[in-house]
Write a structure and sequence with these properties.
295 residues, alpha+beta, Alpha-lytic protease prodomain-like, Alpha-Beta Plaits, four-stranded mixed beta sheet, 8 helices, 4 strands, ferrous iron transmembrane transporter activity, cadmium ion transmembrane transporter activity, cell membrane, CDF_Transporter
Length: 295
């Protein structure tokens, strides 16, 4: 079992525990703000299952039907998470609207607040685990799950503040008001997760910093070549796809050109272990005098 799958399984367990704590807090208090917090946690559990399935599919090796692998499955999961976050936000705002018309009386606030706070601490810890490990293992599904939990942690803090203010001031209207604000925050979070995941499905190029690293390696390790042009990149999960044209002297033998390509590929994979590289070798009359010049 891979590390990413173990982490995804952990997300399901943590999500169920947090959901149980938040539902208990709502049951004790009757607070619509705490109910909104619990509703978001139901999405956490659902998206954790979606992430687990996507990571399992993405780990499958390339086959005849999918010669480039199944890495984009994680982006589909991340998009699904974003959509489900948006749905949860709309449900929360609906509950807030009805509660705003008839503000509920909050009961047993101290116990409910303490239980909800414990759930928030657990979520904050797991959020850090997901984002840190997701970036380390280049898993969009784990990172998206972590960012979703981050929005949950922030909104939980706002919910607790609202419930405390509603109890201490006696202004019951603060409870649905904070629930509505939580819904808006979650709605924005869902949009960001969806937008960032769609960029991966649209074959967005690697970040500028990574692109500069790739260009520097090609320039340094392509000794014997003249230039590299038409460099293209994209990413899918942990895999980075790189392809470019390498111009060599027309008298260069196939063996020598192959040796140059091997040297470049080894250096690129030392920096980007999961990289899939395609190099098209061309004679010098194909030079464009642009792109990456060889040092």
């Amino acid at each position: 079992m891979s590390r990413t799958i173990r982490i995804a399984l952990g997300s399901i367990v943590v999500g169920l525990v947090v959901l149980g704590l938040k539902l208990l807090a709502w049951w004790l208090t009757g607070s619509v703000a705490l109910l909104s917090d619990a509703l978001e946690s139901t999405v956490n559990v659902a998206t954790a299952f979606a992430a687990l399935i996507a990571i399992h599919v993405a780990a499958r090796p390339a086959d005849a039907g999918h010669p480039y692998g199944h890495h984009k499955a994680e982006f589909f999961s991340a998009v699904l998470e974003g959509v489900m976050i948006i749905v949860a936000a709309l449900l929360i705002m609906r509950e807030a609207y009805f509660a705003f018309q008839h503000p509920p009386v909050i009961e047993a606030p101290a116990m409910g607040i303490a239980i909800n706070a414990a759930a928030g601490v657990l979520n904050a810890f797991w959020c850090w685990v997901l984002i840190t490990k997701g970036r380390k293992h280049k898993s969009p599904a784990l990172v998206a799950d972590g960012k979703h939990l981050l929005s949950d942690v922030i909104s939980s803090g706002g919910v607790l503040l609202g419930v405390i203010l509603a109890v201490t001031t006696g202004w019951a209207i603060l409870d649905p008001l904070l629930a509505g604000l939580v819904g808006l925050n979650i709605l924005w979070s869902g949009w960001k997760v969806t937008a960032s995941s769609l960029s991966g499905l649209m074959d967005e190029a690697v970040p500028d910093k990574t692109l500069e690293t790739i260009r520097a390696i090609i320039s340094d390790k392509a000794t014997g070549a003249i230039e590299a042009h038409d460099l293209r990149t994209r990413h899918a999960g942990k895999v980075t796809f790189i392809d470019f044209h390498l111009v060599v002297d027309g008298q260069t033998t196939v063996e020598d050109a192959h040796e140059i390509c091997d040297r470049i590929e080894q250096s690129l994979r030392a920096k980007l272990p999961e990289a899939q590289i395609t190099i098209h070798v061309e004679p010098d009359h194909k030079a464009k005098h642009s792109g990456v010049l060889v040092l």
